[in-house]
Design brief:
The protein has 15 helices and ten strands. By secondary structure, the chain is α/β, with parallel strands linked by helices. It is globular and about 75 Å long. The termini are far apart. Keywords: Amino-acid biosynthesis, Aromatic amino acid biosynthesis, Decarboxylase, Lyase, Tryptophan biosynthesis.
Length: 398
């Protein structure tokens, strides 16, 4: 309804005011004359005194509202600070949001941090993406409320077995199960494929022997989109689909499910242990698999301490510097970490820097049973042949 304006709540003390107030333009000649006469008789009514009382009451009410509003702002700001402290304690270097100043007059446990000259611009590409993603999700939530998504999920078709597809591919071929990535661009490499048809590429991947597909849904930095995920699912591609997104809010999980995802990516570099645990619970409820991605030993240690994780992705690319080193996979799978992974029967997914059969052999020898590959095959004129070249042989079903 247009024309409506918010109504402010007035202090109850104002309702006791004795000033006669009319909300109509005119009542009657008699009534109006009687009111005017009443106002002119100081023995019966002092309008100046009543005006003073009214101003005083309004001032008190306004002051009270402002004070309560500032208390709320302080509590919200402190909550953000506590969340930051928790992330820092877990070794998370990526800030989820730009640093914000304390509310006016703040006095509390974070006073010592107020004078720190913390950078107010992103320190690396992952932080930039994460800050933008937080704003983007806020906008998208207004267009697609969570309650609407929850109802849509109830009518969505069942998910496909992402983890099972990887295990079967490993048994069938003797090679790590392939998660082939449908990706048009990346921040580090720019445009990877000019004539980009996500459905055509997905179908070629499936024909070439991919066990699962990863679909980039970030638009700004990777030129992807949820519409690509939806189109691939609608085209009848049977491979289970991973929604490759920078998840910072539970809303994204529901949205991915409504667009046809069978699995989602969770990045340990931007999520606390508690957040990962909470998001895992949502995914389990919705029938989604989760690929939890790590980059270093500390993140690997954190993830191995969280119950319910079946897929661990080791990204050989630093999401801070974008440098690639496939020996990172071997390093993270040695010693106690490797023992725990074998004990829990987890599937380790090797990610980034895989271009040749030797690369595949290297990470497989380290303990990898699945690989996520995008650039080396999406750039090929024939993705099906690109897959065969990656593994050194044809791994298709035919």
């Amino acid at each position: 309804m247009e024309g409506l304006v918010p109504v402010r709540v007035v202090s109850p003390s104002l309702y006791r005011c004795k000033v006669p107030v009319s909300i109509k333009g005119s009542i009657s000649g008699f009534a109006m004359d009687k009111r005017i006469k009443l106002f002119r008789d100081p023995s019966k009514f002092s309008i100046r005194a009543q005006q003073s009382d009214l101003k005083g009451s309004l001032s008190v009410a306004s002051s009270s509202v402002q004070e309560k509003g500032n208390v709320l702002r302080i509590k919200e700001w402190e909550l953000e600070m506590y969340q930051d402290e928790l992330a820092i304690s877990q070794g998370i270097r990526i800030r989820r949001k730009p640093p914000s100043k304390a509310p006016l007059g703040y006095s509390g446990p974070f006073e010592l941090r107020l004078n720190n000259d913390d950078a107010d611009s992103p320190r690396n590409i992952l932080e930039e993406i994460t800050w933008y993603k937080d704003e983007e999700v806020s906008r998208m939530k207004k267009l697609n409320p969570l309650e609407v998504l929850k109802k849509a999920v109830e009518d969505a078709p069942p998910t496909r077995d992402f983890v099972g597809a990887l295990r079967m591919a490993y048994q069938r071929t003797g090679f790590p199960g392939l998660i082939a990535e449908v990706k048009k661009a990346s921040p580090s490499r720019g445009i990877l494929k000019e004539n980009f048809d996500p459905v055509e590429i997905a179908q070629a991947y499936e024909k070439g022997g991919a066990a699962c597909l990863s679909v980039l849904t970030d638009q700004k930095y990777f030129k992807g989109g949820f519409e690509n995920l939806e189109a691939i699912r609608s085209a009848g591609v049977k491979c289970p689909l991973l929604c490759k997104e920078f998840v910072v809010d539970p809303w994204q999980i529901y949205y991915a499910r409504t667009k046809g995802a069978d699995a989602v990516l969770l990045i340990a570099a931007i999520l606390t242990d508690l957040e990962i645990t909470y998001l895992l619970g949502i995914c389990k409820k919705l029938g989604l698999a989760t690929l939890v991605e790590v980059h270093d030993e500390r993140e690997m240690g954190r993830v191995l301490g969280i119950e319910g994780i079946e897929l661990v992705g080791i990204n050989n690319r630093s999401l801070e510097t974008f440098e690639v080193d496939i020996s990172n996979t071997k390093k993270l799978l040695e010693g106690e970490h490797g023992r725990q992974i074998r004990e829990k029967n987890m599937i380790v997914v090797g990610e980034s820097g895989l271009f040749t059969p030797d690369d595949i052999a290297y990470v497989q020898a380290a303990g990898v049973k699945a690989v996520l590959v995008g650039e080396s095959i999406v750039k090929q004129s024939d993705p099906e042949k690109g897959i065969a070249g990656l593994f050194g042989k044809n791994i298709s079903h035919t």
